[in-house]
Write a structure and sequence with these properties.
- The chain is built from eleven helices and six strands.
- The protein is α/β, with parallel strands linked by helices and 273 residues long.
- It has one domain: Decaprenyl diphosphate synthase-like (Undecaprenyl pyrophosphate synthetase, 3-Layer(aba) Sandwich).
Length: 273
């Protein structure tokens, strides 16, 4: 977190947001559904491709901010298995933009000690995009800071299917039952904590087949801001809202439970003597 404060000038509009954060309660893993590129373009009477191009800058800002905060992992929903249904020209534009981003941002990733990973059914990607992606993954493999997961040709249901098939392929010769840990160890995100915070831009109240297993107890934050307009300040506000939440994971907060019991006991008459 100190790295973020170092890059913010005293008069920077984002500095009060950064200073308001509790460094001991930062999320370990943030996931983002980057939605609204098409609507951003339509509002400006621009082609959808213009919205996708404008969405590159918020990616850079989010990656740098998470790295500076010391967040362990950031997962970005870049392309779903359903996105193949879009017009061919738009899909081709997305693959070109991916290659441009990877080439242009490699230095930024290395400078910020970011390790790139790609999750999804990558074998279906166009060869040029897949090659560029895997080369960037290899080039950042020794970095030890933020893990950046790009979810590409990704589907939460497909991930679960792939996990089950890997378990079957490996065999369970010792007769051990499949547990939650077994499944978690075979997901694309194996080895990383589940997302603490899931952000969705554009105001849509859906999770869109994203990290279905991993977000069981994630805090959800939905903003009406369209992705191309999403800034560092928006990310910091999301983290501040996360820190206001009372995370109980299906149980009860011990301090709140004690306070509740105290109020209850105060309102109960003493038993007759």
């Amino acid at each position: 977190m100190n790295r973020l404060l170092e890059v913010l000038d005293p008069g920077d509009a984002d500095r009060p947001l950064a200073e308001a954060l509790d460094p001991d309660r930062l999320p370990q893993h943030i996931a983002i559904i980057m939605d609204g590129n098409g609507r951003w373009a339509r509002k400006r009477n621009l082609p959808r491709a213009a919205g996708h191009k404008a969405g590159v800058e918020p990616v850079r800002a989010s990656v740098e901010t998470c790295a500076q905060l010391g967040i362990r992992a950031l997962t970005l929903y870049a392309f779903s298995t359903e996105n193949w249904k879009r017009p061919r020209a738009e899909v081709d534009t997305l693959w070109r933009l991916l290659r441009v981003y990877l080439r242009r941002e490699l230095g930024t990733l290395i400078r910020n000690d970011v390790r790139l990973r790609a999750i999804g059914r990558l074998e279906a990607l166009p060869e040029a995009a897949r090659t560029e992606l895997l080369e960037t993954v290899a080039a950042t493999a020794s970095n030890r800071g933020l893990v950046l997961n790009l979810a590409i040709n990704y589907s939460g249901r497909a991930e679960l299917v792939d996990a089950v098939n890997r378990i079957i392929t490996e065999g369970r010769s010792n007769g051990a039952p499949v547990t939650e840990d077994t499944i978690a160890q075979h997901l694309y995100t194996a080895g990383l904590p589940d997302p603490d915070l899931l952000i969705r831009t554009s105001g849509e109240m859906r999770i869109s087949n994203f990290l279905l297993w991993q977000i069981a107890y994630s805090e959800l934050y939905v903003t009406s801001t369209l992705w191309p307009d999403f800034t560092r300040a928006d990310l910091l506000r999301a983290v501040l809202e996360y820190q206001r939440r009372d995370r109980r994971f299906g149980g009860l907060n011990a301090s709140r439970l004690a306070a509740s019991d105290e109020r209850l006991n105060a309102g109960v008459s003493a038993p007759p003597q």
